[in-house]
Inverse folding.
């Protein structure tokens, strides 16, 4: 028997299937239909694991698109799922910073993994993965190319707080011949500063884990760590911690 946890995000839909012995993971773009993405995820997870749908005892869903998917036995908040997933991987963690496609969150947990308090920015694209995606497109790049293309020694401060104005600002900088590598370092610094400020307002404690798709980006890792003055722990499966948490809740309650 197995359980499935889905994290139907604004950008990427992630799924984890767990049974007694193994764990299977799958990810695909959410696209315009969170429901279709979730159905495709389940199909792919069953395919990878070789299990029939009847072998899945429970399927729990989290993430921005969870309400659009009627196939879940239960939906759980992202805050609870990220906390559960990270705590299972690294019980020493006391603060989680998650930067996804559409929001960023800071979550404090206690020694039992229970959420104590949290802060969230879901009102503004600055300080999220969306900001980096828009800027990468403006520079003719894919977001996954940014981290290797930066040069911190040439960092150019990006002054605009708003994503739309920041896009115009970098187009202007490029037109003036400013090196892309310095602009990219400035973009990473902008995200790092914004999220670190939210962390400072809530208060962060070590061990501090950094999760979400943006945690893959070494440049944001660097600036966030510098701004907060602490080392960050990046789980190997940093983009899957919400889906893992949902699967673990499903297993617990099965
Ligand atoms: P959501 O749950 O909102 O869909 P994710 O946690 O999956 O968000 O993160 C999506 C974000 O992660 C994207 O907006 C992008 O900025 C970033 N991202 C995804 N893949 C990569 C990659 N390979 N390298 C760098 N950044 C990435």
């Amino acid at each position: 028997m197995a359980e499935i946890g889905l994290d139907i995000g604004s950008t990427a839909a992630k799924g984890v299937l767990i049974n007694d012995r193994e764990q299977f993971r799958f990810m695909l773009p959410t696209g315009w239909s969170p429901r279709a993405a979730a159905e495709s995820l389940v199909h792919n997870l069953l395919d990878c694991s070789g299990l029939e749908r009847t072998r899945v005892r429970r399927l729990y869903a989290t993430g921005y698109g969870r309400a659009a998917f009627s196939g879940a036995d239960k939906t759980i908040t992202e805050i609870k799922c990220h906390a559960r997933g990270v705590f299972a991987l690294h019980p020493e963690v006391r603060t989680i910073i998650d930067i996804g496609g559409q929001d960023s969150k800071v979550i404090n947990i206690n020694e039992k993994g229970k959420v104590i308090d949290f802060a969230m920015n879901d009102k503004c694209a600055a300080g999220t993965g969306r900001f980096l995606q828009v800027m990468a497109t403006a520079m003719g790049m894919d977001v996954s190319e940014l981290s290797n293309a930066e040069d911190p020694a040439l960092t150019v401060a990006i002054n605009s707080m708003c994503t739309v104005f920041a896009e115009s600002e970098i187009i202007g900088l490029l037109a003036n011949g400013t090196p892309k590598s310095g602009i990219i370092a400035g973009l990473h610094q902008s995200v790092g500063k914004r999220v670190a400020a939210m962390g400072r307002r809530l208060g962060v404690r070590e061990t501090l884990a950094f999760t979400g798709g943006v945690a893959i980006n070494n440049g944001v890792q660097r600036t966030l760590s510098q701004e907060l003055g602490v080392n960050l722990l990046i789980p190997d499966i940093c983009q899957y911690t919400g889906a893992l948490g949902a699967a673990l809740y499903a297993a617990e309650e099965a």
